[in-house]
Design brief:
Largest sheet: 11 strands, mixed
Shape: globular
Mean pLDDT: 76
Number of strands: 34
Low-confidence stretches: 12-37, 127-145, 645-694
Radius of gyration: 25 Å
Oligomer: single chain
Length: 694
Amino acid sequence: MTTPKTHVYGQQPSSSNNPPVVTAAVVTDKKVDDTPLLYDAPALYYPDGKDTKQLPFESLDVEGEFYIAQAFLTYTFKFRNTSKKKLTGLFAFPTEGTVTHFEAVFPDGRVIDTAVISKDDMKNMKQQKAKGQKESQQLAQLAEGVPDLFRVPVQGIKKNDTITITVRILETCELRPDQRYHLDLNTKFPPGIAEGTISVQFQIHTGFPRELNYYSDTHLITKRDSANGAAHFLSLTPKNVDPSPIRFSYFMPSTEIMGALIQQDGIINAWDPRGSFMLFLTPPSHTVPPFPKDVIFLVDRSGSMDGEPFKLATEALSSAMSMLNPQTDTFSLVMYDHEFKQSMASNGMLQPATPQNVTSAINYMKQNGPRGGTNIEAPLMWSLNTLGRASKEAPQRVSLKSVVLITDGCVANEKKMANDVQRLMQDPDSRYTRIHTIGLGQYCNHQFLKMLSLVGRGFNENIINISQEGIVARRTMRLMHSMANPVLSNITLAMAAEGVELYPFPIPDLFKGAPFVVAGKYTGTFPESITVQGFLPDGKEWKKTIITTKAQAIPVERVFSKARIDDLTAKYWLTDDEKIREQIIELSVQESMPSAYTTVVAYETTVDKRDKEEKERKQKKNKSPSAGKAAMIGALAVGGVLAIGAGVYLLGGSGAINATAQGVGHASTAAANAIGDLFGKAGDCCGGCCHGLF
């Protein structure tokens, strides 16, 4: 048997013929005492006269599978209709994660299932309407986007019925400064909603036997016996009688950079028969030597930033600059509108991050408020050239050079900029240059910002609803923490495997404040190990062999699919290649993973019919459709579906460009009103008394 050739995958596209692809009791919308805000926790809402109420649930089971930084969560609710009538309700689930599955099962065998279909198919289908004129009006605008809120209408809930709702979510844990992987789960329900038990069971996989410490200030944690040291089984019990949020974190102490490699074989006759793998790298738990940083903060001060957006950006930037190390770091503040040379603190020169210099820069920002239009290109290219020049002028200074771009705008030449930046990043002088982006509000081209951070091997934070209290500062601080302590840069992978496709690509750096996860596909046989190589803060080379661990029931391909859709979406935006768009749609439908070019729909079937179709699908000897594709076929066969909300995809465009150019009022208003528009502008069941929910 011939041993596969070892290929090296790193920062730049391969020259081979098949390169890696670059690529949301009575509830209220105001907080009163301890009453949760609307959408604070999952709920099944329904209108009752002048009130909006929630159905109580008899039980809730939360199961979590954690793989280093990746969490696969399953929520199973049993809701009971305690009202005196048959109901049409709305199940709403606030999450920043990706909902990969939803179903509602009724006592009579009916099932509300979901499928992902292309938007072209959606245009050709008859959309299902709720029974009754009033409810039709209420549900008319369900496809309107509400940030971070998944919701599904649930019709025909009979009096005294208990329905089972299951939701599966893919989440990425936050890596905090104390090196704990942290996850917050929304389980603080209003009084009287949780009638029964809330069971929480977690399983933590570390990839190989190693020590695990775990924490929660809301729940007591009991460890159960496990078969090996690489899997840790935990039960969580609330410390208080009343339901509380689940705040959970875990920590894997180590004295060095550790790696875990999980591999899953492909399935013959599947729509994609290739195997999958995930690579995790974790930084050492001890303090690492500081990697000096040279940072240029590039801040949009165009007219559309006037008012609250500029105030929030100033406060967030003040906190961000305070995180720089005055002994090792330098920085510069550049503010731009339609020009930028007249709006640079200290003439744009990099200066030590002393408290005095930081204070001076923030005062300069406050004194030079919003005006004019938006020209990102000139200041961005100036910043990258300035950092590149700094590398040439001081080659003995090994530092990570970063541009942090903050904008609320969208301009016409973004694709040219992205291509120019991609070429510039291939220059040897840009070896340690990184681009981090922060998008504020709905008028940003978020794909452009994602693409910049992708080719710039940096981080991206897109904040749609900036009116949410403290969110701009939190997300800015999260980005700064992520980039604060580089551990390993310019990483490459060497593996004896064929047809390897990696996401994200280029491969990102390992930072002490951010999880490192690379997902991939391959053909043929996967090697018993791979070699990871990179450079430490002192410039020395680091190399480690990572042993392959066989996955059992781990949905590795889901991580790959999510990453691939994100990267392909950015690449399609950049190239307008229709073949890439077709790839996105196919992958989205096959894997039931939402995208910018597909729609999540709800349709009704029965348990018996669904089980029969699944059995027939598995019995097919020839290449059979995936479960996602089968669900799409089932939805199309029904002939009537209802589009549901599963996320927000903002790709920019002429409307956003015009809004930016005209200085339109910021997205904070639009986002705040989005919940009010959720059930349509056609009519409110009670003249506004339901807070816009129905």
